[in-house]
Amino acid sequence: MSHFSTIKVQIKSGEILNDVLQELGYAVECNAEIRGYKGKTITADYVIRRSNHYDIGFRQNGETYEIVADFWGVNLDRQQFVNSIVQKYAHKTLLATVQEQGFNLEEQETLTDGTVRVVVGRWM
Hints:
alpha+beta, 5-stranded antiparallel sheet, two-stranded antiparallel sheet, 30% helix
């Protein structure tokens, strides 16, 4: 019986996802198998190796990515892990969109609650 489960997230760009994972300090393998309970494996587009042999993967499902892992054995705070990735992904996507549309980053700060405040501007 497989113990792998998935978490759907609103992540569309694999390139930005890969950047986010690396910025968060994870070594990322592309197009590899994730390991779970009793050596079971599943292929994923991006894989974070874990020393306890319960890896975390990200695989494309349609236009978005999903997180795949045997969370029983991963041994981390699932919600905190997902939140950190989604927040950093949203921030990087925002900055890329701002730049594409001709805006400049004027100011950026992280508030005490972890919220990132961004001010952008454009000369007309």
